[in-house]
Every structure is written in structure tokens, then in C-alpha cells.
Specification:
Radius of gyration: 18 Å
Number of domains: 1
Order of helices and strands: HEHEHEHEHEHHEEHHEEHEHH
CATH architecture: 3-Layer(aba) Sandwich
Shape: globular
Helix content: 25-40%
Largest sheet: 7 strands, parallel
């Protein structure tokens, strides 16, 4: 199924948003794979802990965690808890999910409220948001993309998704009309109950995904027609995590995007679903901390 602008407005389109550091120490342009069911694996935890960047005496950057469509800030709980334990200030703002321009402007205002260096992290559609929001902000030292969209200027998420097959999102979408205070109407996109787990969070327990589906926050369909207006990855070092069994944003697309952006490190978790930051919070955390260490 080809994703078009018309499709996006109706039933369609992209994955979005809301999602590793392996045994090898990463170097520029290096890539590594991490196997195992989750970050609780003893072998993964041991090898990752050996690479924890030294805390040193420098003030740690604030880590800003931006979720994508059908999600909220609580999805970052496992990552935020670990970062706080390691001494990082953390903010996980509510992404409005009202479209690229609106959401990017909001997150940009959050960034401007922070004093000092920032590590900016985006999952899925959150990757599009941080790509736009970080432009021109000299406090942002690194962009960390977690199973994310990494658009170029002028690009639509639907155009990116069409490059590679494998996304189950188009068939999982349930469009629901909504009205605004000024009398205009729009369409919110939800994920269907019987499609949510497979398309979005297949490596989490079914009991967990039932709750996630019930509590999902919709994304406005109009947002998929908005182009990216600035690509901060041209000027800010980027790092990427590939979810190896992602059925929302195909892993091949993630690899393509990270290579195009010149990511300093590209890591992959085989078998991980789109919400890899939930199923593998420890590995996600180590990638963020590696981005900090590499950009000091």
C-alpha cells in the first residue's frame, strides 16, 4: 500500500510516533547489535555498565525526552528513572500531537526554558519534532533518535514511509472526526484495538498493551501533510537506535535515515518492537549517555 497525502488524510499513513548500546564501545560511524529479550538481560547489563561514561565534575546536560503519536511522557519512565539515578536532569514534556509546526514550536519553547546544555531525544514522530525544534538552538548538543523519523527539510513523513515496505500502521489506523471551538473539523488518528499490539508494541506483554491502547493519545491527521521546515541534524551531532522488529517504522528506513544524517553511532536491538525504549530502557539510556560523552 502506497502512502499518499490523500491516504494520510483518510485512513492512513505513517507511523509515528508515539521507540543501543551493545557490548562494543562505539566510535564514530560504528554500529552494533544487541540481542536478548530486554535490558534486564544479565549479559547486556554487564557489558553496558562497563561503558557508562565517567560522571566527572562537569555539570550534566538536561535530557529532554519527546514521545511520539499514541503515547505520552509516561512511556519514558524506565529511561527517565535510570537517567535520574545517574545524575541527569530529565524533562519528558507532553508532545501536543497537533501537527509538525505546532508541536515543534511547543517543544522549542520548552528547550528555550532550559539553562545549559541539552541532549534531545525523540521517539518515532518525536524524531520529526526534535528535528525541527532544535534548529538554531546552540544549547542542544546531541540529537538521539529512538526508532524515529529523521526528515530532511521539505520532507513529509509519508514520503519517508513509502521508501521501504513493512509498516502495519496504515491498516491499523482508525480515523475519528473532531470539532474545534471555531467550528472547523479535523480528523484524529487512533490505532485499532485489534491492531495496536502487533503494529506498535509487539514485544510487550499483552496486559500492558491493552492498557496502552485504551490510554493512547491520538495524532491529528492533518499533521502528516506538514513538511519539515528545518533539519537540525545538519548542525547537531546525531545518534540512532534501530528497533530490529519494528512494524511501525521499518528498520530499513531507520537505518537509511541515520546514515543520511551522518549519525555518529547507529545501534540496533534485534527483535525489538517500535517501543524499544519501553522494552529496553537500559540500553536506550546507555545510548543517551554515550551521546553525552561523545559531545562534551
Amino acid at each position: 500500500m502506497r502512502v499518499s497525502r490523500f491516504t494520510l488524510r483518510s485512513r492512513s499513513a505513517v507511523a509515528a510516533g508515539a521507540a543501543v548500546l551493545g557490548a562494543a564501545v562505539l566510535t564514530p560511524s560504528a554500529s552494533a547489535s544487541v540481542s536478548g529479550p530486554a535490558s534486564t538481560s544479565a549479559s547486556v547489563s554487564t557489558s553496558v555498565s562497563q561503558q557508562r561514561p565517567s560522571s566527572g565534575s562537569a555539570v550534566k546536560p538536561t535530557v529532554v525526552l519527546v514521545h511520539g503519536a499514541w503515547a505520552d511522557g509516561s512511556g519514558w519512565n524506565g529511561v527517565a528513572k535510570r537517567l535520574q539515578h545517574d545524575g541527569y536532569p530529565v524533562i519528558a514534556p507532553a508532545n501536543p500531537l497537533r501537527g509538525v509546526a505546532n508541536d515543534s514550536a511547543y517543544i522549542s519553547s520548552v528547550l528555550k526554558s532550559i539553562t545549559g546544555p541539552i541532549i534531545l531525544v525523540g521517539h518515532s514522530y518525536g524524531g520529526t519534532v526534535i528535528t525541527n525544534a532544535a534548529a538554531g538552538n546552540t544549547n542542544v548538543k546531541a540529537l538521539v533518535y529512538i526508532a524515529a523519523f529523521v526528515p530532511a527539510k521539505g520532507e513529509l513523513q509519508g514520503d519517508l514511509l513509502n521508501k521501504f515496505p513493512g509498516s502495519e500502521i496504515p491498516d491499523a489506523l482508525n480515523p475519528v472526526p473532531y470539532s474545534t471551538a471555531d467550528g472547523t473539523t479535523g480528523t484524529d488518528l487512533y490505532l485499532k484495538p485489534d491492531k495496536f499490539r502487533s503494529a506498535f508494541a509487539g514485544d510487550l506483554p499483552e496486559s500492558t498493551t491493552r492498557l496502552m491502547q485504551a490510554e493512547q493519545r491520538p495524532f491529528t491527521a492533518a499533521g502528516f501533510d506538514e513538511p519539515t521546515t528545518a533539519a537540525a541534524w545538519h548542525d547537531i551531532p546525531s545518534f540512532g537506535l534501530v528497533a530490529g522488529a519494528d512494524k511501525a517504522i521499518p528498520p530499513a528506513l531507520q537505518r537509511y535515515e541515520y546514515e543520511r544524517a551522518g549519525a555518529k553511532a547507529v545501534l540496533e536491538v534485534p527483535g525489538a518492537s517500535h517501543v524499544v525504549f519501553i522494552s529496553h530502557p537500559g540500553i536506550t539510556t546507555r545510548l543517551i549517555e554515550r551521546a553525552d560523552a561523545a559531545t562534551r
